[in-house]
Specification:
The complex is a heterodimer of chains A (about 170) and B (about 260). With about 170 residues, chain A is an all-alpha fold. Helix content of chain A is about 70%, strand content about 0%. Chain B starts with a helix and ends with a helix. β1 of chain A pairs antiparallel with β2 of chain B, so a sheet runs across the interface.
Chain lengths: ~170, ~260
């Protein structure tokens, strides 16, 4: 079984070990509850400053956390590509509704803002063009596996390089 | 009762038994791992049961609104995703309750329908129920080839009914004042009136499931009936025998 633990999982475990609610972590780090919730869900990519604050507040391993944060862009993008592709071996608890047309917008809006901006810029799209972004994710999903893996690796590296420039 | 209805009733009871055994196995491991002296309320423990005991990744992400939740294998690890859009789905009144039952539903999939978790199931010593060993193996093989619609229907029937039995824990019920009121009212028989619906809502809220699932489960257990009349739904207590039978089972579970 794969023992890789994401940054979000690690932060959640550390917080649980201290028996803290998100409110307490927010007070200790100065980060918002909603942002912390997204970090724990691996939906947001924290910058290095935020990672340092989290490590200090939770007595975490800073080196490991910075390394985990580096892996996040690729992991998040991979997940959104899978979501856009639809059912891929998943089993579901059906809700009895017909699939909606608002899903594409909801998925794209949920993406980490920095990742979305980088993707939009790379493919000459508007960040607010949710239909275009969703189609892009679906096209990436349809790539042959080796090409998709290579794309994710290269793109994540560029997104990370971009985020480093902003620190 | 027709032969088909009898068949469904038996399959449902098998699924309940599986769900209850699954729950008790997970809770026992949780209490041991965290050295708990008191059994936790299931609605407070379900995340730990999934993450700490079943070792899955639990997420909240947008999914299409034809699904409350899903389970998938990602890079050799199982991920359970709860739809973050449940609150905006039509006809969902109790979001938290739907989420809890969905987690139990996916917990069952993790335990029974993914070959990746065979090792995990063995690790925590999950005992297969008599008669289920062969069918479980067959389901795993079927899923890896290409699930037929019939197989998927059976799989979901099992997971949903097992989830309801798992999520509605007699230990939680006995800690709930509204449940004791329900027992008193049902033992008297007859129409439970509008306040009967409120009692069910209070029970559901206390134990963390949605009222619809609780109402259906109690009805299938034979403790009340929901009768549609003149556009209204009435809650009518079932015969005393059914309630006594439930009380006996509850006592045995608690002992």
């Amino acid at each position: 079984m794969n023992d890789h633990i994401s940054l979000g999982e690690y932060v959640h475990r550390l917080r649980r070990r201290k028996n803290w609610q998100l409110q307490q972590l927010a007070e200790a780090t100065g980060l918002s509850i909603s942002h912390l919730s997204r970090i724990e869900n691996d939906s947001a990519i924290p910058n290095a400053d935020s990672v340092v604050k989290l490590a200090a507040a939770l007595d975490g391993d800073l080196s490991a956390m910075l390394l985990q944060a580096e892996c996040l862009p690729r992991e998040i993008l991979d997940r959104y590509v899978r979501r856009a592709a639809g059912r891929t071996g998943a089993v579901r608890r059906a809700a009895g509704n017909t699939p909606d047309t608002a899903y594409a917008e909801a998925l794209v809006e949920d993406m980490d803002a920095r990742l979305r901006a980088t993707l939009a810029q790379a493919f000459n799209l508007s960040e607010h063009d949710t239909e275009g972004m969703f189609s892009l994710l679906q096209r990436i999903a349809r790539l042959p596996e080796a090409h998709r893996v290579a794309f994710l690796d290269v793109f994540a590296s560029e997104a990370l390089g971009d985020s480093h420039d902003r620190l | 009762m027709t032969a088909y209805n009898e068949f469904i009733r038996r399959r449902r009871e098998e699924a309940w038994s599986l769900g209850i055994a699954h729950r008790e196995n997970l809770v026992a491991h949780l209490m041991q791992q965290f050295r708990l002296k008191q059994r936790p309320l299931l609605k407070d423990a379900i995340d730990d049961l999934l993450v700490e005991i079943q070792r899955v990744r639990l997420r909240y992400d947008p999914l299409p609104d034809d699904a409350y939740a899903q389970t998938e294998a990602v890079n050799g690890r199982l991920e359970v995703t709860i739809n973050s859009r449940i609150a905006s789905m039509p006809n969902v009144k109790d979001v938290e309750g739907v989420i809890v039952v969905s987690k139990w539903h996916e917990s069952g999939h993790v335990a029974w329908h993914f070959p990746e978790t065979t090792a995990t199931a063995q690790l925590i010593g999950a005992p297969p129920l008599p008669g289920f060993e062969l069918s479980a193996r067959r389901r795993i093989v079927c899923r890896s080839i290409a699930p037929t619609p019939r197989f998927e229907k059976e799989r979901e029937f099992l997971a949903e009914n097992a989830a309801r039995a798992a999520a509605i824990d007699p230990h939680d019920l006995t800690r709930c004042d509204a449940y004791h009121e329900y027992v008193r009212r049902v033992s008297r028989g007859g129409d439970l009136g509008p306040s009967g619906w409120q009692i069910l809502a209070d029970i559901a809220g206390a134990i963390g499931v949605n009222r619809t699932v609780l109402t259906t489960y109690f009805e299938q257990r034979g403790w009340h009936q929901v009768i549609e009349e003149d556009g209204r739904r009435r809650l009518v207590a079932s015969p005393q025998l059914a309630l006594d039978a439930f009380q006996v089972r509850l006592d045995r579970t608690n002992s």
